[in-house]
Amino acid sequence: MSNTTHIKPDLKDIPQGRLGMWILILGEFVIFGGLIVAYLLYRFRYEEWAEMAAQTNIVLGATNTFVLLTSSYFVVKAHAAAVRKDTRKMTLYISFTILCALIFLVVKITEYSQKLHHGYTFSGKALVEQGKAVESTYWGFYFLMTGLHAFHVIVGAVVLLIVMLGARKGNNTHRIEIAGLYWHMVDLIWIFLFPLLYIAN
Fold first, then answer.
1. Domain spanning 16-199 has what CATH number?
2. CB 3.0 to 4.6 Å from 81: which of 35, 65, 90, 178, for a disulfide?
3. What is the pTM of this model?
């Protein structure tokens, strides 16, 4: 008979920073999950929401999807460089990630300006089109979910910048992984928002 001892995993064995980030990510998924479920309940009830979704700019949405996927690739490369203690490449890849975040925000601002120009606002009211006023709670969900996501993009970019500045001096390079987890969460949430708000029409 084998006397192999089975060691049960202990939360104390998990680095506190990583554990804290996973708890934060879980909370963010709960928030966005609740919004997505509420959106779907309305979406299935009101068929006219398909007409509202058709007013979104799929090209800009797809562009931002590509930008975020690319940024996640750079985060992975940055973490790999940090493991190798290659601060030059680590800094380069994080800089590329932050650049992608800025591009995402510029595209999102452009998209918002287009919607506001056509009268679509957070309250769901639009300008008169073809002799009738167009109103829909869809736009409230659109601005709330994409705006909240854009806020997380800003936070993620700031965190990456702070971590990068510290890691360049050789301080706390392990934080690249923790910040990367947050960034992957931001990316994953957009993967859900894009089809729901842009192409599910």
1. 1.20.120.80
2. 90
3. 0.84
